[in-house]
Amino acid sequence: MKHWVPALAALAFLSLGATAWLALDWAPVAQDSAGGLTQKIFYFHVPSAYVMYLGVFACVLGSLGYLAQRRPGWDALAQAGGELAVLFSAIVLISGPLWGRKAWGVFWVWDPRLTTTLLGSLLFVAYLVLRSSAGAGEAEKRFSAALAILGAAVMPVIHYSVQLWRGQHPTVITSRGGGLAPEMGMTLGVAFAAFTLAAVVLLVVRASLCLAQARLETARTDAIALGLLEESE
Amino acid sequence: MNRHSVRALGALVLVLSLGVCATAQERPPQGPSMAFQPGLGEGARERIPGGRLVVGAYAAALALLGVYVAVVARKASQLGDELTRLEDDLERHRARQEEAPAPEGKK
After folding, report:
1. Residues B33/A174, Cβ–Cβ less than 8 Å
2. Does the pLDDT value for residue A151 go beyond 90?
């Protein structure tokens, strides 16, 4: 693993702590129609959605790279990106309804953005389940890569669903209205930086682990061929 | 992340998603565009306790991240040990083969 990863991990940890302090203590409480105190969920809900997009982007980039070059590094990037997308989409899908309970009075509505986010995350859950249960053969990796690329087609629909279908989900950062108080904007900026750092660390660590797994599989095959290991081990 | 963890994560996301969707009964009276501004004390007059929802959301995010990091760290540790052991075995085996005299027929 790269020597700069522990330093970056420490920086990510500190910046996530700073984000929590800014969000919970420093940033003001929003008006009641925006959720009041629960608006503070916004400071990690939105960066989590952004990291979900980053994860999908990494997964698609890795999948395309793997289909073009068949190198294990691309496959590792794809798997790490897929896990990141699922992890952060779970955070988005848990934190969003908790804000909605206060701001809307209900946990969930079949709003275009909520529904497409749910469907998109389920596609990447399917991708991970396929990766984990279909084996580590060439054909399985190619099929998974194709599924990831198809799954990513939902992402623009998620992003533009609010503009396209005018659902209930608010658009705070837009050129046609909305906006943030200065303290809220600064807190969100720090949150974006912290989540970007955390995403890079998780992506590098997980991709390194996938590569180590591939090395282990090769070593096992060699050991079995030399009679050092039983097939079942 | 091993197979069981991924399956468990998949099942968890599915169950949570379905559980949340099951409560979808009402259309809230809220427009799509909204500005977040300081509420001038309105937060203190909340009917639904926002504090619990905030704590719940932060705790859930922290728990998910923590579990993921713990699973990855455990996997990395196990994988590192096994890989080192196996590569050492292979290295020793190759060294022994190089040291051993070649059979007569193959000279």
Report:
1. yes
2. no
Strands (E), B2-102: 35-36
- Spell out the domain ranges in chain B: 68-100
pTM over 0.95, yes/no: no
A99 vs B contacts (CB less than 8 Å) = 53, 57
Q: In chain A, what residues touch B80 (CB-CB under 8 Å)?
A: 212
Contact between B27 and A19 (Cβ < 8 Å): no
Q: Which of A51, A50, A30 is nearest to A183 (CA)?
A: A30
Q: Which residues contact A11 (CB under 8 A, 6 or more apart)?
A: A197
Tell me which residue has tokens 């949340």: B20
The complex's ipTM works out to 0.87
Compute the nearest-CA separation of A61 from chain B (Å).
21
CATH topology of domain A11-23+39-167+179-204: Four Helix Bundle (Hemerythrin (Met), subunit A) (1.20.120)
